[in-house]
Amino acid sequence: VEKVQEQLAGLRIARRCAPSKEPAYLLDMDTSTAAQPGSGRFVAVSCSNRSVRVYDREALRFLREYRGRPGALSGVRFAHTCDSMVFSACSQGTLGCWDVRSASQEPVQVFSGYPSNVFISFDVSCSDLVVCAGTEKVEKDTFLVFWDARGVTDCASATKEPLGVYSESHNDDITKVCFHPVKPNLVASGSTDGLVNVFDINKDNEDDALISTCNSDSSVSSLGWSGEGYKQVYCTTHDEGFCWWDTAQLDTEEPITLLHVLDARESVCAKNHSLHYLVGGLYHEQAGKLFLVGGTSTGNIHLVSCGTDGLSLVGTLCGGHSAAVRSFCWSPTDESLLTGGEDAQLLLWKPGAVERSLAKQASLKISSSVQKRVRVHNTSLKSRKK
Prior knowledge:
Pfam families: WD40 (PF00400)
CATH topology of the domain at 20-273 and 327-339: Methylamine Dehydrogenase, Chain H
CATH class of the domain at 20-273 and 327-339: Mainly Beta
Shape: globular
Strand order of the largest sheet: 6-7-8-9-13
InterPro entries: WD40/YVTN_repeat-like_dom_sf, WD40_repeat_dom_sf, WD40_rpt, WDR89
CATH superfamily of the domain at 20-273 and 327-339: YVTN repeat-like/Quinoprotein amine dehydrogenase
Keywords: Repeat, WD repeat
Oligomer: single chain
Protein name: WD repeat-containing protein 89
WD repeats: 167-209, 318-350
């Protein structure tokens, strides 16, 4: 574990992307898995200007951009079994899937929701069989919508209707959806209602599918899986809290909560650089260790180690970004880290790297009207039947 912490603290900038003609916040990112050894990999970034940009993963060379969809694009995910297919959700009630090898702006597949759906989160199962998206609350309704994702590459420009929805388990915006890394039937969802739910979608109905409900007592901003066999679920909250649960303890007398930190900013002491926010978590499988990524408004990146006894600072990456970091992607194969932020920069960090790229501009911080809307958390959750 100490060696891994040293490696993380020793990350240095290896590449940065060329400045874009239209700077935008880099809000979310994902990398493709190489289909075969030696083949190129891609990184896709969803931006505040309602576009998805695709880059070469190693050189950070810009390849293409998808835009022109009605509504704001939210999130980005590559298919797991086909490294050229990238998905993004749209606020106008659709999900698009593009083939990054094609110059066409048109999605190869559109997943349509129901008329009132505003999608703000989604994920693709590890088998690529199912896509699930979470909606904003409209009147009294909030939904998890599911589609059959099979045959995406075969039916050009076809539109797919939903398989069905879950509608009873959250009562506010569903901000995050995250499938289990190795079990395609398990999916977790997080909401501004404070709840993190875990479902087994192989079950016949929503009541039976709901395996566990964990309460973060705040609005969920990110979530993920960790631990041996990925039996643990964690989340960060919009007020910089952190919760960590062990679903393996559900049928035992042991407490399910591993750690609950109300405000990570107060519990993580960083010399000269205070922690201003959390971005999300990364589980280091080799070390069996969960880490959080956070930072400062001036662009410093803090790497934080998670233990049942609390959070501790591992290291700080400086000199890369000039504004808040909003997204990152960890690669266990070469132990590198991609980061993107409000300064419109996409950076690749590697252990002991020396930057061979454009001269750093004095300040790349951009002005933007993009503000993440977060409702005040309502702690009086509706009564729920188990």
